[in-house]
Amino acid sequence: xxxxxxxxxxxxxxxxxxxxxxxxxxxxxxxxxxxxxxxxxxxxxxxxxxxxxxxxxxxxxxxxxxxxxxxxxxxxxxxxxxxxxxxxxxxxxxxxxxxxxxxxxxxxxxxxxxxxxxxxxxxxxxxxxxxxxxxxxxxxxxxxxxxxxxxxxxxxxxxxxxxxxxxxxxxxxxxxxxxxxxxxxxxxxxxxxxxxxxxxxxxxxxxxxxxxxxxxxxxxxxxxxxxxxxxxxxxxxxxxxxxxxxxxxxxxxxxxxxxxxxxxxxxxxxxxxxxxxxxxxxxxxxxxxxxxxxxxxxxxxxxxxxxxxxxxxxxxxxxxxxxxxxxxxxxxxxxxxxxxxxxxxxxxxxxxxxxxxxxxxxxxxxxxxxxxxxxxxxxxxxxxxxxxxxxxxxxxxxxxxxxxxxxxxxxxxxxxxxxxxxxxxxxxxxxxxxxxxxxxxxxxxxxxxxxxxxxxxxxxxxxxxxxxxxxxxxxxxxxxxxxxx
Length: 485
Prior knowledge:
By secondary structure, this protein is α/β, with parallel strands linked by helices. The chain is 31% helix and 25% strand. Helix 2 links the parallel strand 2 (30-34) and strand 3 (53-54).
């Protein structure tokens, strides 16, 4: 692609789209974008890169006429900018297609896929390679992560293509659809040389009709891995087993089973870190330490270690990388500690993710009262298909508050989650729960009930009405009770 193009991105504030914008800007292109929901961290990243965000969508945002338009997968027919692009025959493409054509060709594609854990696992893998590259520059990674990796302070990095051997490019393999004109999963554009498959569950109920459809998507990804490649796959899931059963490449399973190729054992959380042993094919591989809580994070780390080791990364670099790993923005991120109240931000978007987040917080903050504050915002959580599972996950908290369903009018009423049903089910279990109209109502209801020592987990995959600023400010101004509560 020539370095003088003007590229406009419709729906630029999605994590992958914003990261791609930064990558294209680094290549020398003039990049502009538009969206209706600009919020941190990606809005801050775009501002830092000098990429303007036009709000709202409008035909004038496409003036002067761009050379190319990248259409985000959240954009549908009827969007005023998309309609203008089609009417005026402005060339357009998808995020996944341009990512392959401009960045993956000539590099080693290492893809992390699964319905949970992709962002954290990809960040871990990138940091492993970065640490290893200190002794072997050929291992210096390029990457694209669906969040801001705190070790790097960015969601992407692009290194020059190596002369002697392909440089690694690490990226999340998103099973969500590609664009309005390409309804296949984005990861089918990435043609992995090796891959990780973490979990396979029913998700994205807006585009997949059932679990069988989700599994078909992952089977198609597995079918793209060449015979010379490798697949590291979780062994604690029948769904994963079904998806990898017909792989043509080597498959290495990881988990807690005695016969796992990569076996996890002796896991414990102490002194602010998770520690465990990993065996490889029955022999000791490494003792790992990760400064994070949560069984799911240890499993993610094991998967990253397994893929890296199989690609030739030294064990010493893997061990060092985990001991210095700093997580990802909006993954169990401590946003504030005010008057003894700890506020946690987590991107939880599925009942399983919520369950693992709350389990991790129980380990990290033993004996402290745990609040779960949920905004049903993802296309999955806004639907009632997971209502029972959501109750089971939230029941791990001591008290819960639910906000109204985000943009509820866009979900058919018969499919729409009713937060009050969830609250009533929790109340029936003796767990205090209430429903609030919005972030302001949540803050008003929550602050008078907080006490020093409380942990508040805010669960949303969006901006949640700026609650991450409003809640700490309200606590600072309010009166917080002391123990006992």
